[in-house]
């Protein structure tokens, strides 16, 4: 890991940009205590302080002038976030103070930390596995309580524990199959092969089912409202939001450009996209809006296809993927002109049908994963779980003497999931998404 520069002492501002009551500058590495001694003046030097202690004093610049009053929190290796000696300076949170404290740490011998380098050191030093490191990033970026909860579960090792159980089952079968090769006449009993493999496959399927939900809870979902002019798209957007965000008029074609609004639904941060009405038109501006609506629907995580239930039904304006589309019959407060059990009746005026629509959106986005624990939250984790499942299923279909390779590959994929056996390129790809200071 020398290429990563882990032998250096690093420093960074670890609180969010902007002014605040308190700010933190973190220093980590084998020379962290020496750097801290050079810049901090108090009743005791950080280098002579046991781990887990606060010191009160002042950060001084190279000429001895006071930069700011400060608390210095000392951690001794390996009992720190990074597993190294760490000192955190807590000062007033103005950008001027924090930048000067950081500059002083760099003058004293530290170098600027790279994005995610503190957490990278925690991973390299065995304080976190790769799934826990990804949970740290998810926790930093969490926008909803669901995302926070899943990140916290991942950080506590709940995901690693689920994976470890699967690994133990696959390892048990691998050991039994390899023992059978020495005594082929005995074979492998079902309780030592089929039963644990079936349970491993079941657990992997449950993890994979959580993958999409985990990613949506972390990054958010885009939900596009499409339909013909006056289908009630803008009215429904306002009703879902609970306030008037989009202009509503009886004039067809009022919405020509798309409009976005944010809300949280079932623990998922959602971007609602109100689009132009879909119809043939000679108006160049409106036609551009229609093309844009089709493109937005194509890139959405979920599409609400709205049809006016109070007017004679027209052919669907857009052929949308069934697994990403909910069909909604709007204006349910008016006498119905048609009915279809496959559509959800909703009234933006009275609110009738909105709870059922919200539940349908939740079910489409999260599925059964909403009732599970420790979701997969990244595409990398989902890919590793799918590869593991493929190898487990292949092993179940093979005779004992041919299953060994598939079982070994399943274990490699599970190791990839938690980061036990990954390349530096994979590690780099994970940590480049972190902010500096974490």
From TrEMBL:
Domain TrmE-type G residues, every copy: 220-366
Domain of life from the UniProt record: Bacteria
GO CC, any one term: cytosol
Entries under InterPro entries matching the protein: G_TrmE, GTP-bd, GTP-bd_TrmE_N, GTPase_MnmE, MnmE_dom2, MnmE_helical, P-loop_NTPase, Small_GTP-bd
CDD domains assigned: trmE, TrmE_N
Stored Gene3D superfamilies: P-loop containing nucleotide triphosphate hydrolases, Probable tRNA modification gtpase trme, domain 1, tRNA modification GTPase MnmE domain 2
Sequence positions that bind (6S)-5-formyl-5,6,7,8-tetrahydrofolate: 26, 88, 127, 438
Residues annotated to bind K(+): 230, 249, 251, 254
Subunit and interaction comment: Homodimer. Heterotetramer of two MnmE and two MnmG subunits.
HAMAP family: GTPase_MnmE
Family named by the database record: Belongs to the TRAFAC class TrmE-Era-EngA-EngB-Septin-like GTPase superfamily. TrmE GTPase family.
Annotated function: Exhibits a very high intrinsic GTPase hydrolysis rate. Involved in the addition of a carboxymethylaminomethyl (cmnm) group at the wobble position (U34) of certain tRNAs, forming tRNA-cmnm(5)s(2)U34.
Protein name, per record: tRNA modification GTPase MnmE
Gene source species: Deinococcus maricopensis (strain DSM 21211 / LMG 22137 / NRRL B-23946 / LB-34)
């Amino acid at each position: 890991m020398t290429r990563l520069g882990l032998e250096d002492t690093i420093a960074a501002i670890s609180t969010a940009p902007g002014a605040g009551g308190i700010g933190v500058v973190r220093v980590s590495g084998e020379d962290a205590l020496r750097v801290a001694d050079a810049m901090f003046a108090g009743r005791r030097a950080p280098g002579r302080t046991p781990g887990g202690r606060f010191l009160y004093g002042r950060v001084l610049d190279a000429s001895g002038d006071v930069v700011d009053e400060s608390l210095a929190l000392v951690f001794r290796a390996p009992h720190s976030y990074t597993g190294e000696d760490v000192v955190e300076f807590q000062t007033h949170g103005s950008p001027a103070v924090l930048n000067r404290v950081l500059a002083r740490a760099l003058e004293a011998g530290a170098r600027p930390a790279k994005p995610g380098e503190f957490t990278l050191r925690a991973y390299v030093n065995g304080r976190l596995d790769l799934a826990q490191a990804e949970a740290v990033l998810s926790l930093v970026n969490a926008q909803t309580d669901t995302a926070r909860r899943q990140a916290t579960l991942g950080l506590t090792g709940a995901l690693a524990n689920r994976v470890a159980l699967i690994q133990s089952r696959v390892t048990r079968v691998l050991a039994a199959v390899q023992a059978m090769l020495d005594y082929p006449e005995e074979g492998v009993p079902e309780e030592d092969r089929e039963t644990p493999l079936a349970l491993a496959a079941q657990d992997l399927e449950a993890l994979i089912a959580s993958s999409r939900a985990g990613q949506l809870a972390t990054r958010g979902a885009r939900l596009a409202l499409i339909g013909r002019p006056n289908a009630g798209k803008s009215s429904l957007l306002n009703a879902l939001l609970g306030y008037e965000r989009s202009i509503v008029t009886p004039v067809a074609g009022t919405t020509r450009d798309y409009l976005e609004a944010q809300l949280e639904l079932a623990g998922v941060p959602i971007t609602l996209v109100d689009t132009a009405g879909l119809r043939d038109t000679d108006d160049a501006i409106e036609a551009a809006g229609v093309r844009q609506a089709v493109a937005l629907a194509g890139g959405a995580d979920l599409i609400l296809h709205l049809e006016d239930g109070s007017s004679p039904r027209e052919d669907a304006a857009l052929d949308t993927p069934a697994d990403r589309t909910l069909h909604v019959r709007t204006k349910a407060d008016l006498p119905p002109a048609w009915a279809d059990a496959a559509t959800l009746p909703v009234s933006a005026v009275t609110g009738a049908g909105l709870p059922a629509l919200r539940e349908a959106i939740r079910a489409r986005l999260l599925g059964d994963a909403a009732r599970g624990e420790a979701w997969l939250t990244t595409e990398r984790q989902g890919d590793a779980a799918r590869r593991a499942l493929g190898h487990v299923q292949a092993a179940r279909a093979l005779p004992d003497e041919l299953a060994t390779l598939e079982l070994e590959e399943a274990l490699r994929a599970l190791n990839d999931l938690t980061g036990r056996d990954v390349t530096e390129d994979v590690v780099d790809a994970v940590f480049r998404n972190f902010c500096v200071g974490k």
